[in-house]
């Protein structure tokens, strides 16, 4: 089984639009996973049915038992996040401010503070309109993505692919270069970098590529909106050549990207997408060739 | 030499876990005694953040001479492991522990 992970470093480059198009083109041949859980949006294009859902627990926060509390105030003294306040004469740990470090729980003389595991959201196993299975998640308000959640989504996707006898898992990766991205990349056979010719686009592809390179995962790149700034597009191409990253394609700036999105369609489904459809199809073929030899 | 592996199970036939921080098990093979021991790491795999440095800490306590893994540790774990007198080899993510050991013996794994 092979695993393709699509990442961008920078947001707004068209990563999810392209991933969803690949997922649509591939149809039943693969299992899709949305690991961009902070701002999950692949479901808007893939129309999953949310058929199976399970709660997801991650991280802990302090909870003070009023009966046991002796009002000594030691917890509030040591809290570095100012999460403990007195409300109506009772000590209270604010779940939004609490970072779950556990310092208060450790020093509390009567052991009145326990660290409670948090239900931060749900994960889903769905069937999509493309006929494939998609593993995705939805976080509650204020909850953050984590390496743990990404690992969960990926492991479920791999288990599903194994069960269905599918040879491919396509992952919409997490943004940035931190814990969730490390987790997104672990075990990948091919990374597709989607970038754009802006200063931050170039900066962030370089930054995230350091991690890809360290993990020794073969990489390929699509430069989206390549005609917006030809000068930086050239700089990106130089970078790709220097690092021996396969340059899959340049896509022009095209408002059909947004038009199809507002219709809730992937670009390859959208009637008026014209050339862009062919480019995406050709790119997907290229990606499949690359992963076959990775 | 004591050789540590990140693994999905506790046997020689188990698959190497490509993940470092969230590996299910750490196996340690002592070449001198010929003994294989294992440490369950699933409690760390279950933490939301900082899995890499915590697994690195565990590895520190086990004190192996060599680590064999899949992709290799991420940046934070790497910073910790650099302080240990430990040789790290990556690229064994698609092998069994046995295959990875043989590949290491034959000099086929890349030093991380």
First-last Cα distance of chain B: 18 Å
Please count the helical segments of chain A: 10
Q: Round the mean pLDDT of chain B to the nearest integer and report it.
A: 92
The assigned structural class of chain B equals alpha/beta
Q: DSSP strand (E) fraction of chain B?
A: 15-25%
Which strand order do you get reading across the main beta sheet of chain A? 3-6-7-2-8-1-9-10-11
The helicity of chain B comes to: 25-40%
Describe the structure.
The complex is a heterodimer of chains A (294) and B (112). Chain A has 294 residues and is an alpha/beta fold. Chain A has ten helices and eleven strands. Chain A has helices at 15-26, 42-46, 74-78, 103-107, 147-164, 179-185, 199-214, 230-242, 256-262, 275-293, and strands spanning 2-7, 30-34, 52-64, 84-87, 90-93, 113-127, 133-139, 168-172, 190-195, 219-223, 246-250. Chain A has a nine-stranded mixed sheet, with helices on both faces. In chain A, strands 4-5 form a two-stranded antiparallel ribbon. In chain A, strand 4 (84-87) and strand 5 (90-93) form a beta hairpin. In chain A, helix 5 packs parallel to helix 6 (179-185). The radius of gyration of chain A is 22 Å and the shape is elongated. With 112 residues, chain B is an alpha/beta fold. Chain B is built from four helices and six strands. In chain B, strands 3-2-1-4-5-6 form a six-stranded mixed sheet, covered by helices on one side. In chain B, helix 2 (51-62) runs parallel beside helix 3 (75-81). Chains A and B meet through helix 5 and helix 6 of A and loops of B.
